Amino acid sequence: MCGRYVSTRGPEELTRLFGVSRWNPEQLVEPSWNVAPTDQVWAVLERPDRTSGVLERQLRALRWGLVPSWSKGPGGGPKMINARVETVHEKPAYRKAFAQRRCLLPADGFYEWQPVPATGTAKAYKQPYFIRPEDGTVMAMAGLYEFWRDPAVTADDDPAAWWTTCTVITTEATDAAGRIHPRMPLAVAAADYATWLDPAHQDPHELRALLAAPADGRLDVRAVSTAVNSVQNNGPELLDSPAAGAGG
Q1: Cα dihedral sign for 49, 55, 58, 64?
Q2: Which of 4, 110, 215, 243 could cysteine-pair with 133, CB 3.0–4.6 Å?
């Protein structure tokens, strides 16, 4: 799975990298070295302009953890941070979003963990690894987004009435990432951004064919500080090499 990732690029850089034509400066997402479920994250998506109907590529802040439109409440969102590519086109929670509401979730890289057994007086712990493209380019993780209407909010035009949430599509891990964890996020190549984001493209087989391993599998994997194990910790120091003998 992909349960934590790093996203430090600002909106000005992301609008340039992804050819975004619309971004609301009032929406802010702070750089994060420990993005966790329920956090606000940047997403690139395409929606028609309400007045002209022209499709616009937008940069939006979404909540990580998808809440289906038919859900009675938002409680399941934190559990729906990932959607398996093997079943994403048929699962009720993701089927409509996969057909019409696809997005890109920019990331510097993602974390996975490997259990370390107890030895002598040292306790067992989980060692985090940071996995990123070898060339340091942005990772465009394939995602889905959904709208959920909060029935507890009376006014339809109240911003609190609507939740916009997202999930990361994952697959079986290969290459370097597979040595750490059996699942990994899928990504979309720059040449395929337009096709992936366009809601008019709805053939599930064609859409799944656009998904690939981040950086075509050319990934750098390295152990990092166990401080990332706590969602309370954040900052570039999380990417430091672990101290000798460090544990959870």
Answers
A1: positive
A2: 215
